[in-house]
Design a protein that fits this description.
Elements (H helix, E strand, L loop, with lengths): L4 H8 L3 H9 L6 H14 L17 E6 L5 H12 L13 E6 L4 H13 L4 E5 L6 H16 L3 E5 L10 E5 L1 H15 L4 E5 L5 H17 L6 E3 L4 H14 L5 E4 L2 H13 L9 E3 L16 E3 L2 H13 L9 E4 L2 E3 L10
Parallel strand pairs: 1-2, 1-3, 3-4, 4-5, 5-11, 6-7, 6-8, 8-9
Antiparallel strand pairs: 10-12
Protein name: LacI family transcriptional regulator
Pfam families: LacI, Peripla_BP_3
Organism: Streptomyces indicus
Length: 346
Amino acid sequence: MTVTLADVAARAQVSPATVSRVLNGNYPVAAATRERVLRAVDELDYVLNGPASALAAATSDLVGVLVNDIADPFFGIMAGAVQSEFGGPGGRAGGERLAVVCNTGGSPERELTYLTLLQRQRAAAVVITGGAVEDPAHAEAMAGKLRRLGEAGTRIILCGRPPVPDTGSIALTFDNRGGGRRLTEHLLDLGHRCIGYIAGPEERTTTRHRLEGHRDALKAAGVDESETVHGPYDRQSGYEAARELLRRDPDVTAIVAANDTVALGACAALREAGLRIPEDVSVAGFDDLPFSVDVVPALTTVRLPLHEAGARAGRIAMGREAEPPGKVAVIPGELMVRGSTARPRA
């Protein structure tokens, strides 16, 4: 049965004219009403209607790039690398593609909304960056949306995100678990046994995988797990979490941070407490963001090839590079040992 504009209006409890305004973007509509209409569009899988239905399987020159926070260097680097591949030869008829960066703010609802809008625009490709939210209902909704996008001819690349089976998507996933394990093994090899951990948000796959790697290394060495504090992937979170770790266990000799930005906040808290890095407490991060080598002391971290992964995602989106075998490629991280880690104090 064909879904009509009137069906969407009834589901969203608005007039057909309001639905049309939201979908065409030619008249201001209250944010709450817009969200309600887009949710109804997604639930009913209403994409195109009337004469435009013949174009449903065709794609445009639009490519969507979804990020959690464009101000975060992790996402900015990948988004820039993806977009750098959209010009020049190799695209359809040798032309360029228009990249639209969609900033979700970490909201699962916004993630689905942007995918709905990109589906309506018949996007040629969608690149989704960063870790996934581990919520069964959202995971099911995402899988359904990705499946419908693929069926409509959109190429879907997950960059730095775990695979989503049976959706036709291509996953370039970082080995966060392996990187987390190697980072903690480095600290254990230096002699640390009291290692605090500042983790990211509990609902993110990136958080879980990095923490699992940390715990795997401790277990293999027969070392009991120390304190763990969760928080956002930002500097303030690292500052507050490091203070909490020191309160819980003043004898901590090393801190592993969820990412480099969090590590900077942790360093600030340690210095405020009168502790030296690494003489009193070693600090390690993750990602190897550009500033990591310039801070004092330079930060020990795990380098993820963010630019390389983003560029590869862009080439696959443009059809310039073949998809990996089985549609999944695991991208390893590299341990970068610098001045922020040393043997524990005597």
